Amino acid sequence: VTSFASNDYLGLSIHPEVRAAAHDALDRWGAGAGSSRLIVGDRPIHADLEDDIAAWRDTEAALVFPTGFQTNLGVLTTFATEARIVSDELNHASIIDGARLAKAEVAVYRHGDLEHADRLVSGGPGRVVVVSDTVFSMDGDVADVTGLAEMCARAQALLVLDDAHAVFGEGGLVAGDAACLRVGTLSKTLGSQGGYVAGPRSWMELLINRARSFIFTTGLSPAAAAAARAALSVCRSSEGDRRRARLRRHIDTVRPGHGTPIIPVVLGDEAAAVDAADRLLRHGILVPAIRPPTVPAGTSRLRVSLSAAHSEADVKRLVEALELLG
Ligand SMILES: Cc1ncc(COP(=O)(O)O)c(C=O)c1O
């Protein structure tokens, strides 16, 4: 079967240079980091990767964690304790859990509704942290990053953006006065494993000293770090541009004008979604049904995700199979 379910949007997990970098790191440093980064789990590849991420995100510094999930936990428990977190209702589970762990007051705004968010931001004393996915993982829509940044600058709130599913640089870089942290993952567009946060150097130093999900966990494996670094280099090259252009063509074939490679086909009922997934599978197309609690009840769906690794023929077969669903 052909999978249309992974988050390997640029197909970099199988790129020859990415694999070779992982092999070299494995031969040089062994399978695991051996301990937390602060004990003896640090390798030069971690700092090299962090420097490259900071250059890519145009920030002073960056810090990598073993997963994106842990990155959100670390960022929110460090920067949002005793703050009010203003959070989009469709934010990822790792943001929800980070907010819980931070023991913050959490105010949830209706999905993408910045007027609602603005009311919550101004609704009381104390520090405010606004947090949003840039690309929403189950809907494939994009947050209004400029609007969020302007709101945060006005209210002197910290903006935390989770770029986990960004592949085309959605949202861009935040210009102007907003204090901003960019969280992301190495496990989707970069095809490896791990998470990162990018921002001012002193904030990274605070995380190194405070974030329990960084301090009390084994460092990212050197092979995963090396793979992510090689993938980032491809991503920022003309080959990366070609891969994004190819992915854009695939998206336009399936849903013209849609902004991201995540294409939801909402069917409502859980049974209908499972039935549709079964029918696609009989045509050799793997698109698992997404049901509650991943999405709200009554919005069960097929979550189609496209990759530059798909061929034109693969995408054509997908479109034909989707048409047969009626
Ligand atoms: C928006 C968002 N943030 C964070 C994560 C967690 O990333 P990771 O898989 O690297 O733990 C995910 C992954 O599912 C995600 O969709």
Helix count, per DSSP? 13
* Range of strand content: 15-25%
Shape: globular
Order of helices and strands: EHHHEHEHEHEHEEEHHHHEHEEEH
Please count the beta strands (DSSP E, at least 2 residues each). Answer: 12
- Residues in helices, as a percent range: 40-55%
Bound molecules: pyridoxal-5'-phosphate
Oligomer: single chain
End-to-end Cα distance, whole Å, is: 21 Å
Major β-sheet strand ordering: 2-8-7-6-5-3-4
Write the layout of secondary structure elements.
Blueprint: E1 2-3, H1 16-29, H2 37-41, H3 44-57, E2 61-65, H4 68-79, E3 84-88, H5 93-101, E4 105-109, H6 114-121, E5 128-133, H7 145-155, E6 158-162, E7 179-185, E8 195-199, H8 201-210, H9 212-215, H10 222-235, H11 238-254, E9 262-268, H12 270-282, E10 285-286, E11 289-290, E12 300-305, H13 312-324
Parallel strand pairs: 1-10, 3-4, 3-5, 5-6, 6-7
Antiparallel strand pairs: 2-8, 7-8, 9-12, 11-12
What does this molecule look like?
This protein is of the alpha/beta class and about 325 residues long. The chain contains 13 helices and twelve strands. The chain has a seven-stranded mixed β-sheet, sandwiched between helices. α1 packs antiparallel against α10, α3 packs parallel to α10 and α4 runs parallel beside α5. The longest helix is centred in the C-terminal third of the chain and has 17 residues. The two termini are about 20 Å apart. About 50% of the residues are buried. The structure holds pyridoxal-5'-phosphate (PLP). Pyridoxal-5'-phosphate binds next to α4.
